[in-house]
Amino acid sequence: MSSAEVPSKFHGWCAVSKDSIEGKFVWQEYEPKAFADDDVDIKIMYCGICASDLHTASGGWGEVDYPQVVGHEIVGEVVRVGSQVKHVKVGDIVGVGAQNDSCLECVQCKASRPQYCDNNPVGTYNGRYSREGPGKGAKSYGGYADYHRAPGHFVVKIPDGLDHAIAAPMLCGGVTVHSPLVQYGAGKTAKDVGIVGIGGLGHFGLLFAKALGANVTAISHSESKKADAEKMGATRFIATHSGSDDDFAPYKRSLDLIICTTNDASMPLIGYLSLLRPGGHLILVGAPEGPVARELPAFPFLFGNVSLGGSAIGSPSTIKEMLELAAKQNIKSWIERRPMEDVNRVIPDMNASKARYRRARFPVFVVYVLVNTKNGGKL
Amino acid sequence: MSSAEVPSKFHGWCAVSKDSIEGKFVWQEYEPKAFADDDVDIKIMYCGICASDLHTASGGWGEVDYPQVVGHEIVGEVVRVGSQVKHVKVGDIVGVGAQNDSCLECVQCKASRPQYCDNNPVGTYNGRYSREGPGKGAKSYGGYADYHRAPGHFVVKIPDGLDHAIAAPMLCGGVTVHSPLVQYGAGKTAKDVGIVGIGGLGHFGLLFAKALGANVTAISHSESKKADAEKMGATRFIATHSGSDDDFAPYKRSLDLIICTTNDASMPLIGYLSLLRPGGHLILVGAPEGPVARELPAFPFLFGNVSLGGSAIGSPSTIKEMLELAAKQNIKSWIERRPMEDVNRVIPDMNASKARYRRARFPVFVVYVLVNTKNGGKL
């Protein structure tokens, strides 16, 4: 396909106001950034729905410059590449995660950690490009749409053998947990790994921690998700119930690394820390709207030699590594495919937490993936 | 000297009530633990005064089983060794830090990290021995005394060339900062190191961070300690003043590691975290009586990829390594020697923070070391 076939304007489900997540996304035209020599245009086949989409579309994480096209777990076919792009070509199936651009020049960018760019890590939506070039100053628009334009540095080829819809939610949700699992040595220096929360992020935590060779413990409020957690790879389950010391005491100092995916601002942080062996790490990847701790004491840190850290999404190189691991080990996201045109039914479902865990006799966790059948996505 | 010359009862400056630190230590007899095959008896020449001594003697850190002999920066001459002790002999000059015993069998003890013993890390004072043997159940007594009896595993030889009085405060204060500096790669993976607080611990932080090859930044409330900090090795000084973002902004993401020695419960923790590069660590070694943070938010951890940890004292093997470094590089603690018999004058001075930083025109920071001239200590 030549570039002539890519329209100059794109269409997408736009959030135009804070109530968009109540079934009020609007299908309308918008203007993507001007095409640069290092850009890639993608015909969108799949887009996972991430909790961040809802926080942003609704303005829950702060003011938003409407209209916004959310969605940052994008998979599709390359339909145009700039002259500087060498790693993908027209016809390739590629993915874009939650980051679209960065300065490419700072220490972090040069160390393949552009998500921590010192200057301007640009989100796939709700961002503004700032590098010199024709797109400077333009807004970024995400994947609930027909096309997506992205700087090629943030476009990753989907490896052969990995289902394209299953790959989609890995691009943000998957790498958000895979990245700290790798950074903190899961399966290597950290043999015993705990995952707090069995939701969109947590299910990837269990799947990838197991794939990396760790002994996996699922940590959840109640036993309701135990059966699913075991299917995802957990060999031990800790129900924290009230969050009192008694719930944690039997498991004290039994983990080397905990990835904490919960958004619950009342999480029992000190209890989680007590599960770590000295030298262990508790890494936050969820972002509660409130503080993660009140009255944080020093002694658990001192006498436990434990640390509390955080991690945000993952770099394109980590995404590539994760997708290759998923292809090799046949790791499957737990997804449900829904037509992209039904977004105004799907999002309210998810917003009501139905997607996270259905209130059924045999609860089944799923992540929704929007399917753009017009562009070749398969339901 | 044969064992016959070691008295069966020891004498020391005993804390007998919460007001002991107001000049009411009492010189009296007490019974040390029964001598075991792996014990060492030490004729005390020097004992540094550590802030922990005051917290414990006064009951500030919780209930205390009086009488207590505090002091855990002990240097003296070996006068008796048990049959199992091979690494020191009668006549050697040795030191004992803040830890006196541990189970010696758990994963942490076997990994030379007995300060994080899974079972019972026994303090040099205010502890009770729990290993099988003649001393099981006995109280531990520290160094404001004529003799000290310690399990040999926690007795370290003072290397040749290191002044014995100068070595004393390194045994707790020194290793408390040296241990995390080494654990987190100061001078190696962590080239740029910050030390918060220029007090007993902080001055060692500056001295040892420099000795380990790091670029050292001193971080203090005001500029008053700048000249001293530079003498101790700092090449950059950050005054945090009010703790507002403006005070930190010019230095954002400029450090790889921060050792936080302050006891100030109102410390600007989020400001300190903003000084770290992604992947950086803020390590607490001071123990405020209140919480170190209220309303701890998640975002600085996520977007900064920084972590908050803690570290307690140091193992005998780390003490040995530190003393050898100090001997080799001629590192000198900033000390003032005071006769041990004057303890009831010295402690009230220190309690009033005069020792930490004198209110003089040219302030000079010092750590007090009690000198037992009867046993050969030199004023």
UniProtKB/TrEMBL annotation, chains A, B:
Spans through the membrane: none
InterPro entries linked to this entry: ADH-like_C, ADH-like_N, ADH_Zn_CS, CAD-like, ER, GroES-like_sf, NAD(P)-bd_dom_sf
Cofactor(s) it depends on: Zn(2+)
Pfam families, per database record: ADH_N, ADH_zinc_N
Key words of the record: Metal-binding, Oxidoreductase, Zinc
Domain of life the protein comes from: Eukaryota
Metal-binding listed as a keyword: yes
Domain Enoyl reductase (ER) residue range list: 23-355
GO molecular function terms attached to this record: oxidoreductase activity, acting on the CH-OH group of donors, NAD or NADP as acceptor; zinc ion binding
PANTHER family listed in its UniProt record: ALDEHYDE REDUCTASE
Family: Belongs to the zinc-containing alcohol dehydrogenase family.
Protein's recorded name: Alcohol dehydrogenase (NADP+)
